[in-house]
Every structure is written in structure tokens, then in C-alpha cells.
From TrEMBL:
It comes from the Bacteria. The lineage of its organism: Bacteria, Bacillati, Actinomycetota, Actinomycetes, Micromonosporales. InterPro entries: 6-PGluconate_DH-like_C_sf, NAD(P)-bd_dom_sf, UDP-Glc/GDP-Man, UDP-Glc/GDP-Man_DH_C, UDP-Glc/GDP-Man_DH_C_sf, UDP-Glc/GDP-Man_DH_dimer, UDP-Glc/GDP-Man_DH_N, UDPglc_DH_bac. Its EC number is 1.1.1.22. This is UDP-glucose 6-dehydrogenase. It holds the Pfam family UDPG_MGDP_dh. It comes from Actinoplanes cyaneus.
Amino acid sequence: MSKLPRLTVIGTGYLGATHAICMAVMGYEVLGVDVDTTKIEKLGAGEVPFFEPGLPEMLAKALDSGRLRFTTSFAEAAEFGDVHFICVGTPQRKDSEAADMTYVDASVTALAQNLRRKALVVGKSTVPVGTAARLTELVRRTAPAGDQVELAWNPEFLREGFAVEDTMKPDRLVFGVGSEWAEQRLRSAFQPVLAQGVPVKVTDLQTAELVKVAANSFLATKISYINAMAEVCEATGADVTDLAEALAYDDRIGGKFLRPGLGFGGGCLPKDIRAFAHRAEELGVGQAVGFLREIDGINRRRRARTVDLVLELTSGEVTGKRVAALGAAFKPNSDDIRDAPALDVAATLHRMGAIVTVFDPAANDNARKAHPELQYGTSALDAAMDADVVVLLTEWTEFREIDPEMMGQVVTSRKIIDGRHALDPASWRAAGWEYRALGRP
Ligand code: UGA
């Protein structure tokens, strides 16, 4: 193995922390950087500040190796690193649908101000196309090393819940570069990954930026497509789960991301499709991705329709009714509640006057901070105590395994809405439950 470059990872959230930890395990010397002192202290002490299966064990391994350290100092990072990965968040702006570039711009500026020698800055954050070109200018203007500093784009495709797996062996790598040197640097920064035969696609900067938003838009479109079919099923008495299964046999369609239900949420898909539509409008090609607004609309309607189902099961009046909300995270195996459909439904029902008790195996604490007005249970059964309706909103395995008879004994009425098609309707109905799900008779 040729001498490995030293890496810094700027931003230690879901993406950055995972990248820093996995790269250190794979043999690189890595410095993780964040402006959040609490996060840096926790990570340095071996504690992952969020829920991600397998990551705490990997962090322990990385720290034991002596190859992973954390800092809040950009000067130290600039001094240490040969390749600097930018992994900070690009949330939706408060005043529009565009991406908020504050953190990207601030971190790149802080790093560049300290760059005194040849280095590669690699963007991983999801950004509006054209950002890399803008940042190239910014870096060259700001860095003492001037145009010795190059910029590349390497979008990240990891899924929360599978972050370690997706980082150690991604299905592809995309290197957006402006020179042969940058490509070779990236190849050496991913040597152990490439050695496993992971395909790499080398592109220009703007194509690399676009790959990411195009991928997330496609995934969002696929989910909304099947959820649109669910709406049609509801009007006709057809069954969307049978429909989806039948479609999935066609290899060209495939069954992945074709699970109907409450729809997509999280810190990526919803804000990425909005930012993409916004950026396309700025570029004068808004019409080309105008359908993304419809994709967003279909997705939002799933949440509203789930609330409607609760109303149907409570004879049109939820005020004073007890609702057990099973799940708060945007998907199972995560404690992430950003734009979580589950919490959205729970909070809406509360606003409508229902007494909502939430239980999520990992996200209760995050949910409580964001929605202190809701009540929180200590288990699914605890949340379901005296409930008039139970609503399954996040498909955790432990919810799939609930015994309908046992839960039936603690509720006031045996009524359940399966927002994620996670339960077997026959066994719930056999136990005397009124079972309802979106897109099914
Ligand atoms: C998504 C992409 O899948 C990753 O490839 C990407 O790297 C990441 O965004 C990102 O941009 O950082 P993630 O947000 O972790 O990953 O979650 P997904 O597994 O994509 O699920 C997103 C949402 O779609 C969840 O709320 C999930 O419940 C929902 N979903 C997913 C469905 O409703 N139906 C499906 O068939 C699949």
C-alpha cells in the first residue's frame, strides 16, 4: 500500500461521524472536526451522540487503534490533513425551500483560512448544483496556499440505520474532479474501499453534485408513485400491497423503495427534492423537475390521510380520545426525527384535541425535546394503555412482533391503523381488532 493521505472530516453528524470512524478503522489517520464542543467531547470519549447500529463498536475500535482523534480547531485540521472531507448539514432554509448553505460556507471558509500547503478539499454534503464551482473560487481566494488547494465532490449515499455497511462497502463511489491529481488523491483516500471492487464513476464537479440529488429524487419519486397508487386503491377498494408485490416481479420496476404507507421523511429526501426543484427554477429549468412538487404533495397527503383514518375510527371526533402512537423516528433503526412523518401525525392529532402517547424504541428522547406537549410511554404496551386507537407509524421490528391479544387486553377499544403495512391484518382481525391501513380495503 502506498502511503495513505491523512484525512480530516469536518462535521460530525450522522454522515461525518460515520465517515471519520470507518476511515480510521480502514487504516487512515483521521481527525474529526466540529464546532460543537459537546459532540467532539462525546466522540473523543467513545460515545456516539446518535443512534446508529454498529457504530459505537466501530468507534471503540477506531479510538483503540490510535488513528482517530477529534478537535474543534480548524487550524489543527488544516495543519494535519492532506484530504479534507466536508460533511456538514444543508438543511432547508427557514424562509424558502432552498438549501441553507450557512454551514458549508462557514466550514469551508474556516478551513481555507488555515490552508498553507497543497491539499484537497472534498465536499460530501448534499448541495445545489454549482456549489463546487463557487467554493473553488472561495477556497482559492481565502487560502494562504491559493490555487494549490483543489476542490472535489464525492457525494455520499449512505442510509441511516445501515451507515457502517454503506460506508465500508458502498454500491458505488462518485468522484467529481477537476484534475488528474484530484482523482488520484481521491483514489488513495478510498484505497481499501476500491480494493473490494467497488465501482467508481469519475465525473466533473457539477455532475457529481447532481448525481446525489437525482438519486434522492428518484427514490422519493418511487415511494410517492406507489403511494399515489394507494390513493387510487382507496377509491376503488383495491389493495396496494398486492399491487406493489405484483409490480415488483418486473425486474425493470423492482420491489425496493416501493413500500407504500405513511411516506418518506428524514433529514434528506424531503428537503433534497425541495432544494432541487428550487435550484432548477433558478437555472431556468424548473419545468423539467416540476413533478417533484407533486411528489412532495403526494407524500404530505399520506400524513393527512393517516390523520383522517384516525378520525374515521373515532367517529369523526378525536377530542379527548386516547391515541397510542407507535413510532416517532422517520424510519426504524434510527433516532432521527427530522421531518418524521410519525411525529407529524402524532403532533397533528394532539393539536386536534387527542391525548397522544408516543413510544419509540430509540427516538423517545429526541421526540420529547421537539414535542414536549405529547405524552411518552415506556413501551408499546405502556403507550397503548386505555387507548381508543393505536396507530403504528414507524415499522420497528418490535412493533411487528406485538401480540394482538396481549395489546388487546390493555386498550379501551381494539382499533389499529397500520401506517406502514407492517402487521398481518388477518391475525389482528382474528384477535377482534378493527384493522385499517392506507390503500387497503
Ligand atoms: C436517504 C437515501 O436512501 C440515501 O441513499 C441517502 O444517502 C440519504 O437519504 C442522504 O441523502 O443522506 P435515509 O434518509 O437514511 O437515506 O432514509 P431512507 O432509507 O431512504 O428512507 C427515507 C424515508 O422513506 C423513510 O421515512 C422511509 O420510511 C421512507 N420509505 C422508504 C418509504 O416510505 N417507502 C419505501 O419503500 C422506502
